[in-house]
Amino acid sequence: MSQGNTYSFVNDNAAPTPKRSIRPYLILFIIVALAILAYNSFFFLNEDESALVQRFGRIESVYMRDASPTVIEYLRDRPEVDLYLGTGLKFKVPFIDNVIKYSSKLILYDSPPREVLTLDRHRLYFDNTAQWRIENPLLFYEAYNNIDGAKERIDDVLYSEMRISVGRLNSYVLISDRETSGKMLLDMAEAVSRNFAEQGIIVIDIRIKRTDLPSETYASIYNRMNTERQRVAAENRSQGDRDLLEIRSETDRRVISITSEAERRAEEIRGEGDSEAARIYNEAYSRDPEFFEFYNLLDTYRLTIGSSSTLVVPLDSPFAKYLLGID
After folding, report:
1. What DSSP letter does each residue of 37-75 carry, written as one string?
2. Residue range 30-45: average pLDDT?
């Protein structure tokens, strides 16, 4: 059986296949490249953020919404680093600059319960919280680089300050005297802030969430608290008695002083009235002495003669002149 030949036919009238253009792909590539370039040329700084721009491992600029005088003074001594204030869209060199952002908001640090020893040698367990924030991002970056490293350092410093501060006070004072414990926490916050000033961190507040007592110290601390409260109550009562005596003494002194002044003034007014009355009387008497003599005699009759009065007077006395009608 013979093998047949295969023939192919070419249609000379068929239309040629068109070549595909690469122009649309080139345009798309350019658009994507420009988008990537633009994306890497800008970054956005939020209101609650600060940023560092790093170029070839070196910090070139600092971006902050606003800066404290301490930060401005520090960066003035670092002329190689530029400071830019304000938020929003910022420019960076694409593919070369690296942006490191930090939050400017308060960061809550919650420490694990720690055992401390008081002045009266009692063991207490304190569970603390601290609020802190990054004030100088450049210092913070050079000291810690990240938040976790800072938290470890804060834990060490806070525990050290807690041991020092608690070791100065008795256990019953820490538990019962809120004013003293509050002042202790304020002093601790200031001390910790001073410790972290060169690391770009500021500690705003320290609080004690909970204080636990070992079971074997309950009775001892309670008795000390009770004794201390009784002592304070006795001092308050004694001070109240002293204040009462002082108030009463001062009141009595003021009453005597006011009464004496009133009596003196009354005598002055009474003397002035008597003097004025005598002047008016003498002036009136001098105008018609005979009439006023008659008037005074009638007034004497009114005061001495009643409905059942018996008088024994000489007939030649002035008293009997008008009474008996003797000329």
Report:
1. HHHTTEEEE-TTEEEEEEETTEEEEEEES---HHHHHHH
2. 82
